[in-house]
Structure formats: structure tokens, C-alpha cells
Amino acid sequence: MLHERIPNLAKFVEPDRVRREVYTDAAIFEMEMERIHERVWIYCGHETQVPKAGDYYTTQIGRQPMLMVRGKDGKVNVLYNRCPHRGSMMCGDRSGNAGEFFRCSYHSWTFHHDGKLRAIPMMESGYAGTRWTRDNPDCNMKRAARVENYRGFVFASLAADGPGLLEFLGRSKIAFDDICDRSPEGEVEVVPNCFRMIQHSNWKIFLENQLDALHPSVTHQSTGRAARDVELEIEKRTGKIPLSYHMLSAFSTVTIEKWDNFQTLNYPYGHCILTGYMGLRPKDPDTLEYERVLAKAYGEKRKEEILTTNIHHVLIYPGLSVQSPLQQLRAVRPLGVNRTLTEIWHFRLKGAPEPIYRRALAYYNLVNSPSTMINADDLENFWKAHQGLSSDGGDWVSFHRHYGRDAEKDGMVETAPNCGTSEAPMRNQMKAWTQYMAAGK
Amino acid sequence: MAKRTPKKTGAAKQPVRAAKRAHNGHDTQHAVEQFLYRQAELLDEKRWQDYIDLFAEDGMYWMPPEPSHATWDGMPAIFAEDKNLMTVRMKRVLHPDAWSQRPLWGTNHVVGNVVVERESPNGDVVARSRFHMMELRRDDVRHFAGLYIHHLKKTKDGYRIKLQRVDMTNAQAAYDYVLQVWV
Ligand code: FES
Ligand SMILES: [Fe+2]
After folding, report:
1. Are residues A294 and A427 in the same domain?
2. Of A14, A211, B38, B120, which alpha carbon lies 20 to 30 A from B49's?
């Protein structure tokens, strides 16, 4: 039926432009969920969200409500949040501890943390002679087909086939290496707080914005200027500028022309990196102390490598945006063709001095919290974009900027020098989208 | 993870009579109420600078993400703003290119259930109250409600806010869009 209405999906995407329906058509959204989100590796959460046996955290893969739960064997399982009896949702809270086992609130069927059936009340008498026997796999809570954990970050795929997690991540795995290596212990733990914001726009609009170097100096100039004014005033009074102001004022001091000096690196499966621009390595005593701790843990040479990793954002298509130098990430949960939830988390570098955590926390609170002075204007843009694309005022979205000037090498597309505002990341995402959609279910 | 624990400021802990004795009756009650009403009015009238001026030089506006948090220091916070940061926020919304401020946008606060929790000999006051804020943005209405805890410093120009804690009942719910200014 879908295929009758959308006879040739390939016609919707050209290398330098995309039909507007790709963002606004509810049938295409359902196909995306089947062919992309419910097949590929999706970030579920960090293992420190569920430290003890029985701890669970609800999450979402495509349209599917899922549970991430720690078993008694220490393993993190990912299950559908659904009872196999009559389909009731198993856990109604966002997170908690299931105790020794899951117990359905409807008819008290119980399940082990790995989803295996534990007990059904009066099972022997009730089910004798039926095909509902313990060895029937339908008696268990359904598990995600595949679960993998990379340095504490738990991913699941609802498809049994497809590339493994590391092959899928490819070089975008640097997002997690960069986060973890900045800890002298090589590990992070989650800060127990999740900020959640809903965007009234298609999920792809958010992802395309993450590496859109053309927008910050325009969209965020009001906040950039305001922070610049105040930081100059503070400098006059105290002789110092707090780094937290710099995180905001960078939006006005880095002008639109300067953005072309940065670079995007575009990888298979739609992943992309935007190189760093914020200058997050000041020479204050806190930073120097942190560098000493890192050098002690890794040696001088490795420390330099870690601290010069040149990343601002890593986009892991289709559902994760990671700001590794600040140890935070945004997971994208599509709610509908025009509604998208972001879940925003911050991580603490184990063993790093407290001021380093606080510095990143300031960014989390100022930029990534519900009172954000940055994303307020992004979300306004996303809404407007979705509204505009819902109209018949035009058929195409343009991704022509610096098209034809991309440099392809070693399996990745690098923007040519001085093309930081290239729309290569959007083209790269749509290329992956087309491949996924053509591959079918 | 985010477990809700009962608030330490719960009314049940403070016997009514003790609370009464703790401050000098109607005058303080009246002055605190007038202060809170006026503060809410400044928000609804978008008189941002006047609003900021209600804070003491070292004053803080703090909205924790959940009621168990005892400090903003080193903690994730929805708002944790001193006067400098409040000034950034004000300048942002007043900037002609604050795009998200362009559409029709307004709020209406109602403040009530004002309880003067304690009054120090120097006239400083801790008061709690309940607020309900309706917000209109374009054609969409949102509601935010919760508990204010004001630590007020008595000055010759009236009260100044040392700390305003805002425990929003819907702090943990997913935000449909964001919070552009103080609630
Ligand atoms: S639906 Fe879960 S026990 Fe019946
Ligand atoms: Fe932005």
C-alpha cells in the first residue's frame, strides 16, 4: 500500500537536494522507523544508569518502548517493555528497581531480568493441555535482537542481521573514546539527571542542524551578544572572564565567515564530525592540574593526543549527537513525523578534578537544560522549518552549499579547506537514508 | 534514578502556632505577600530589569530539576543564575534578533498560600508560597506550577532576594519547547 503511494522513493532524494515530503509525510516516517531506527544500532543508555541488579531504565528504539535492565549476572539486557500475556506494559515508571524479578501488574506473571518467564499463577492447572508451555519462547518478554556495550555506552538493534556495533560506528566511535579517555581512569559515569525536551519538527531536522556551521552566528547571535556584553563587564570589574560565559559568547565572536575555517568529516552510515571551535583548553590552574593528572595516568605524549582531539560534535546517525569534549550527549527519540524528543545527559570523568566536571556542568545547565538560551532559538527554527516544509510553496530542500567540492579519501568525505559551512553532512546523512530505505525491511 | 523525596519544607513539620510566633504577625505577612505579588507582576509585565533589581547583589535564582537537591553548587539545574547570568538572559530576550521572542508570548502568574516560615530579629524572612503560571505562545497554552521558597533580606528599600528556590511540580516532565525566562 505504501509502495503504491510512494512508488519510487529514490526519486525523493538527489545528491544535492531532497523532496520536502521526506520530512513531512507520515507514511515515509513509518517506513523510516521500520527500515532505519528499528534496524540499526540505537543508543539505549549508559550502564551506570542501572548500577545494581534489577535496576531498569525505560528507553525507546524507533517506535518501540524498551527497558534497559541490569541482570543478577551483571549483564545489561534490553527488552521490549511489554508483557507477553495480554500485552500490558511491564514498567510504567521511567526508571526504578524491579526487585528480584519483573512482575506484571495485570495478572502477576513474573519474569527474570533477562526476560525469561519465571512463573505464571497456577500455571499447571491453567495451561495443561494448551500450547502455552514453558519452552514456548513466546512466554518470555521479547529481547532486542542484539545488544552491545562500547565503553559503558549501551546500544541495541532490533534486527538480528546487519553490521556489528563497532563496524556500524566506524570512526564515529571516537565520540566515546574522546569522552572516556579524558578521564584518567578511562571511564565515565552518568550524572543522574536527564533533561528532556520535545521539538515540534521531524527528527532529521534536528540531526541536520547538529553540524550546520552556517547557523550558529545567525540563530544564536542574541545570546552570543548578550553574553559578550556581560563578560566584558565582568572582565572590567574582576580582570577575568569565567569560561561559562565564553561558551555562550563564542556564538557572537565566531562570525559566519570564521565558520568556514572549521571542517566536517563525513563517514559511512551517515555519521559526521564537526571539528572544534570553542577553545576549551585554557591555561588556568584547574586545567593545568587536570593535565598533570592526565599525564600521570597516560604519559605526556598520550595526554597531548587526548587533549588535542579536535572535535566539537559527533553525530551518530540516526539518533545520537555527542559533544565529547564536554561529556554530554543528546539521544533522539522520534515521537511522530513532526514531534521529536531529545534526552540530554551529562557524564562525569572518573578520577578527574572536580573543577573539570563543574566546567562541563556549566555548559549542560546553560546550553542543554530546559532553560537553554541556545536551543530556544534552534527549536524555534526547527518548528519553522517543519511548518515551511509542510506547505506547497516549494518541493525541494537545498543542500547545494559547497556541493562538488568535497574531498573523498579513505572511505570518508572531508570538506575542502575553507568549506566548514558546507552542507556535506546533510548530503551524507541523506545518502545513508537512501541506502537504508532502498534496502527495505 | 531521580527519586522524589519529601520536601524538607513541608508544612506539616511546622506547627501553625510556632510559625505565628516566629514573625511579628500581620505586618510581615502583608509585606511578604505584597513583595511576592509584585515580583510576579514584574514577570508578567516583562519588566526584566526591575525583576533583576529585586535580587540582592549576591542573590540567586534557582530551579532544581528535582526537590531532593539541597544545593545548586555542582549540581545539574534548570536555572542557577546570579545577577550576571540573569542579565545575560535579559539582554538576550531584549535583543532584536532573539528569534524565539518574536511570536506572541505572555504569562500570567498567580501566587498564593503564602506562609512566613521564619523571621530573624534583623527582619530577614524565609517564606514559602505556591504559584501557578499559565503561558501563551502563539496559539499554545502551557501550565507550570509549584513551590517558591524565598530567602528575603530586609533592607531600607524593602526586601531583596538572597535566594529564590523554585520547585516546579512539572520540573521532571518532558518540556514541550523550553523555558525562555524565569518562572
Ligand atoms: S498482561 Fe501481564 S500478566 Fe496478564
Ligand atoms: Fe544551534
Report:
1. yes
2. B120
